[in-house]
Design goal:
globular; Glutaredoxin; 167 residues; 17% strand; 5-stranded mixed β-sheet
């Protein structure tokens, strides 16, 4: 199937996909939200990485492991998880308890924001998880790692990006 998509792109039969552009208020919308414990996320003034994820998603587990490794050398970077209920409960795979259990066991450092439709729309409604968003200290989006358009970043790639952002 992948060869068919490649052929279609090469012959000009279809347009290549374009990553969605987020509104400048995307991070502000997340910061105005409440986390799993009911606390308002709030502003930070430092680079922030946001990952959309689900407790059952193996790709999400890999990217969360990458973010965990990154944290050791970049303690000033805030990492937030956005858990969209439609992704979490997809095909009966997860629920709020599964999110809490996964985070407690594998990523206790992750602050999780349960996303409703409005918040998920602000993030461009990424159909695939995980999707990573990197914001600079002013809240401007500087990079998006959407699996439809590019590979997941490595620890080194993220570290280099954060270095350019002064983190």
């Amino acid at each position: 199937m992948r060869w068919l998509v490649t052929f279609a792109l090469l012959c000009g039969c279809v347009e290549p996909p374009v990553a969605p552009v987020l509104p400048p208020t995307a991070l502000q919308s997340i910061e105005a939200s409440r986390d799993l414990d009911g606390g308002v996320v709030g502003t930070y003034g430092r680079p922030t990485i946001v990952i959309t994820f689900a407790s059952w998603c193996s790709h999400c587990h890999e990217e969360l492991a990458t973010l965990a490794a990154l944290r050791a050398d970049h303690p000033g970077v805030r990492i937030l998880g956005v858990n969209y209920i439609a992704h979490e409960v997809y095909a009966g795979r997860g629920n709020a308890q599964a999110v809490r259990a996964y985070v407690a066991q594998h990523a206790p450092w992750l602050r999780v924001v349960p996303a409703d439709d409005a918040l998920f729309a602000v993030l461009g409604r990424p159909p695939l998880i995980p999707t990573l968003y990197v914001f600079d200290r002013s809240g401007a989006l500087v990079e998006t790692y959407d699996r439809r358009y590019r590979a997941a970043p490595s620890v080194d790639e993220l570290a280099e990006l954060l270095g350019r952002l002064g983190a």
